[in-house]
Write a structure and sequence with these properties.
- By secondary structure, the chain is an alpha/beta fold.
- It has one domain (about 5-280): Nucleoside phosphorylase domain (Rossmann fold).
- The chain is about 30% helix and about 25% strand.
- It has helices spanning about 10-20, 95-105, 165-180, 200-210, 220-225, 250-260, 265-280; strands at about 30-35, 45-50, 70-75, 80-85, 110-120, 130-140, 185-190, 215, 230-240.
- It has a five-stranded mixed beta barrel, surrounded by four helices.
- Strand 3 and strand 4 (about 80-85) form a beta hairpin.
- It is globular, with a radius of gyration of 18 Å.
- It starts with 7 loop residues before the first helix and ends in a 5-residue tail after the last helix.
- Bound molecules: hypoxanthine.
- Hypoxanthine binds near residues 214, 239 and 240.
Length: about 280
């Protein structure tokens, strides 16, 4: 097993493979696109796509048909690097492996990471299809992306998480959503290990703990982005009410169908966020 203290020497070679394909373009925004939301990568202009299999250190997805690729291109005046497809802890990877691609996005120059996911709604007032801006998170994964030796070249041993989801960028997202007439919710995301959906008893526990949306991703990537000093915007698509709220069984089909239904709204919001980040000099 490689130790975390040589992480720098694994992140930068992967970034170099990408950079060799980009010419003089340097991405300033990293997009991590969640279940059913990956189509946005195909909207990037003048795009270069690289299969994860070509990138040293990228974990291979073990879910058949979810190969995954990095797409670099422009949108809303911003040069973006998008992850179309991500791996999860439930696939058998460590949290550090899951988060490795996010480190490469930051090494490529991303100042802001926009991380998206599909999540179950814990707040019973939220209908499926609600978009939730992540204000903060609870980490109930049983592994941590920074476990092991720290590589001081990448970031500090004990990163502060007080403003993990940058307050100024949350304000920006809220303004963009209001201008587009989107009724954006805001709340706390909890990461659960999966791959089962929660039991109704777990859902009641998570509600008591103060969470508003539950999913199986996002936290490892946010942790490494903050470790390396990037700012983070997180958006959950509430694809279903969490287990037990309606009593209906949960299914992956419902998750992907809801994500597909809000796709246009979601993509419009991302377009608006990118344009606002550029207009306000947040990517300098
Ligand atoms: N729970 C956990 N992860 C999810 C859910 C859920 O209800 N919906 C989509 N991802």
């Amino acid at each position: 097993m490689t130790s975390a203290s040589d992480l720098h020497d694994r992140v930068h070679p992967a970034a170099a493979v990408v950079r060799a394909r980009l010419g003089d373009r340097a991405p300033r925004v990293g997009l991590i696109l969640g279940s059913g939301l990956g189509g946005y990568a195909d909207r990037l202009e003048d795009a270069v796509a690289i299969d994860y299999g070509e990138l040293p250190g990228f974990p291979a997805s073990r879910v058949h048909g979810h190969a995954g690729r990095l797409v670099v291109g422009r949108r809303g005046g911003a040069t973006c690097v998008a992850m179309k497809g991500r791996v999860h802890v439930y696939e058998g990877h460590s949290a550090a492996q899951v988060a490795f691609p996010a480190r490469v996005l930051v090494a490529l120059g991303a100042r802001v990471i926009i991380v998206t996911n599909a999540a179950g709604g814990l707040n019973p007032a939220w209908a499926p299809g609600t978009l939730m801006l992540i204000r903060d998170h609870l980490d109930l994964l049983r592994d941590h992306a920074l476990r092991g030796d720290n590589d001081d070249r990448l970031g500090p041993r004990f990163p502060d998480m007080t403003t993990a989801y940058a307050p100024a960028l949350r304000a920006l997202v809220k303004e963009v959503a209001a201008a587009q007439g989107i009724d954006l919710a805001e709340g706390v995301y909890v990461a659960m290990p999966g791959p089962t959906y929660e039991t109704p008893a777990e859902v009641r526990m998570l509600q008591v703990l103060g969470a508003d949306a539950t999913g199986m991703s996002t936290v490892p990537e946010v942790v490494v982005a903050r470790h390396m000093g990037a700012r983070v915007i997180g958006i959950s698509c509430i694809t279903n009410q969490a287990a037990g709220i309606t009593g209906a069984a949960l299914s992956h089909d419902e998750v992907t169908e809801t994500a597909a239904r809000v796709r246009t709204t979601f993509e419009g919001l991302l377009d608006g966020i990118l344009a606002a980040l550029v207009a306000r000099g947040e990517l300098a």
